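Hey, sorry to bother you again with one of my protein questions. A protein chain has come my way and I'm curious about its shape. It would help a lot if you went through both lines with me. I owe you a coffee for this, so here goes:
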Amino acid sequence: MDLEGFLAGMRDSYSRIAEDYAGVPGQAQRPQLIERALLAAFAERILAGCGATVADVGCGPGQHTAALRELGLDAYGIDLAPGMVEVARRAHPGVPFEVGSMLELDRADGELGGILSVYSIIHVPLELRARVLAEFFRVLAPGGLVMLVFQVGDEQGRREEFQGHRIGIDWYRQQPDDLVTLLRDAGFDIWLRAVREAEGAEKVPQGYLIAVKPKVKIF
């Protein structure tokens, strides 16, 4: 596939709609009840373990990054779209946000204590998911956690318009078992998997996975 073209298309599309996207009800609001509970468990385990920095990958308007910091984590947000990073910085002053790609995180091996990916892996072409999870594994410290939030299903599609803006955003729903296999192949142990039924305007169930990078065994 044309990787550079894919990244440029996603970057430009989300930058173009960033202001309007953040204004849509639900898109920039605090995490829902079950997400808050799972984020609290995610944060508590990180704080009890390595306690290192946490990256909110594909942070969008930044509400989840801010929620992680409220839970006591040294969290920062990263997004491919510069326009989305600008929106996040205005909405959450003092919270660090940066432009970057989940395919090549600008962090050393084992530097992070956790990675949160809320509805960002849904934009990764299926053939690139293993590469993304391998990159997550690389930057996590032993004992570090990754949390994935996604829409459950087998469908995929492309959105070409958003509130009058011409865009090109591909999306892929995910099956929890497929992601579990990919996470294990990357070297992770699974800590939690959960599925919540669709609520409100949601069309499909929502999935949650938390996986751990194993600590090195001495003997």
